[in-house]
Amino acid sequence: MQTFVDGAIRIHVTSRRALDEKLEVAVKQLQAVAMRTRTHGILVTRHEPGAYTAALSNQVPFGITMERIC
User: Is 36 exposed, middle or buried (0-12, 13-18, 19+ CB in 10 A)?
Assistant: First the structure.
């Protein structure tokens, strides 16, 4: 499952394959948005196994995707 909430894409999965697919789609969507302003990178946060968010972040340089584990 993938939902868009408060500027972030929330991803909930039960398999590694699904995670890879959902993250790829989310990052591509965010890259398209980031290209407009060229001021934000992408931050992917793992909240718990199977629960992630992907969002634009002004703390990540443009053109970079970083992962954070909470």
Answer: exposed
What distance in Å separates the CA atoms of residue 58 and residue 19, rounded to the nearest whole number?
A: 24
**pLDDT in single tens digits along all 70 residues of the chain:** 766 556 799 999 999 999 999 999 999 999 999 999 999 999 999 999 999 999 999 999 999 999 999 8
Threshold 0.85, pTM exceeds: yes
Q: Where are the alpha helices (DSSP H) in the chain?
A: 16-37
Would you call 57 helix, strand, or coil by DSSP? strand
CA–CA distance, 13 with 4 (Å, rounded to integer): 15
Tokens of 5: 């909430």
Q: Give the residue carrying structure tokens 């931050």.
A: 43
